[in-house]
């Protein structure tokens, strides 16, 4: 896979493939990023911050991230730009550099999509839990085709973004390349959410 240069947006959160992302844009470097992405239809990379903060000096991003594609714009009540985006392909960052405006760019290698794997019977409860969570929350994900609940990758990614896990745990789940292994890890986390 060849290296591709993309702008990076380090965040204090993990974006999963197919997942929603809403951002409030106010720094000049990110306004530039949004303008460029809107102009040429490109995406930007979202990586969990390992050191630093979202605003101010450039933060140190995790080596594995997710491409985000902007799906909508709005003006927020405070007058700032709001964007909605959706997670796409995952990638690994080979090198980074900081441009004059403080925007971090990465030379990244995109990962192939995971193979389609059915949710194994021993993890069927995870699909049921996800369906109940989505019924409560509503939104676009709650209206998906019932067949999605048989897709191990989709179930794993949706549960990983919905459960109140620590960001390093979410990053671990993002970095896994085996959808069944991700479900096993989620199964390992589940006891902490059971009511005593």
TrEMBL record:
Record InterPro entries: Lon_prtase_N, Lon_prtase_N_sf, PUA-like_sf
Q: Which residues form the Lon N-terminal domain?
A: 3-194
Looking up Gene3D superfamilies in the UniProt record yields:
BPP1347 like domain (1.10.4060.10), LON domain-like (2.30.130.40)
Q: What is this protein called?
A: Lon N-terminal domain-containing protein
């Amino acid at each position: 896979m060849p290296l591709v240069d993309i702008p990076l947006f380090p965040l204090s959160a993990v974006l999963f493939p197919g997942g929603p992302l809403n951002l409030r844009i106010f720094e000049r470097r990110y306004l530039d990023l949004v303008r460029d992405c809107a102009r040429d239809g490109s995406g930007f990379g979202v990586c969990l911050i390992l050191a630093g903060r979202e605003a101010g000096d450039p933060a140190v991003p995790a080596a594995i991230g997710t491409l985000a594609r902007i799906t909508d714009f709005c003006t927020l009540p405070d007058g700032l730009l709001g964007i909605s985006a959706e997670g796409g392909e995952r990638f690994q960052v080979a090198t980074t550099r900081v441009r004059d405006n403080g925007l971090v760019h990465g030379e990244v290698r995109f990962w192939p999509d995971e193979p389609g794997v059915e949710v194994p019977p021993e993890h069927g409860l995870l699909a049921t839990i996800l369906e109940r969570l989505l019924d409560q929350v509503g939104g676009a994900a709650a209206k998906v085709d019932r067949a999605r609940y048989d897709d191990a990758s989709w179930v794993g990614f949706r549960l990983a973004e919905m459960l109140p896990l620590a960001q390093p745990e979410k990053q671990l789940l993002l970095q896994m390349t085996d959808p069944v292994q991700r479900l096993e890890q989620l199964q390992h986390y589940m006891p902490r959410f059971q009511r005593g």
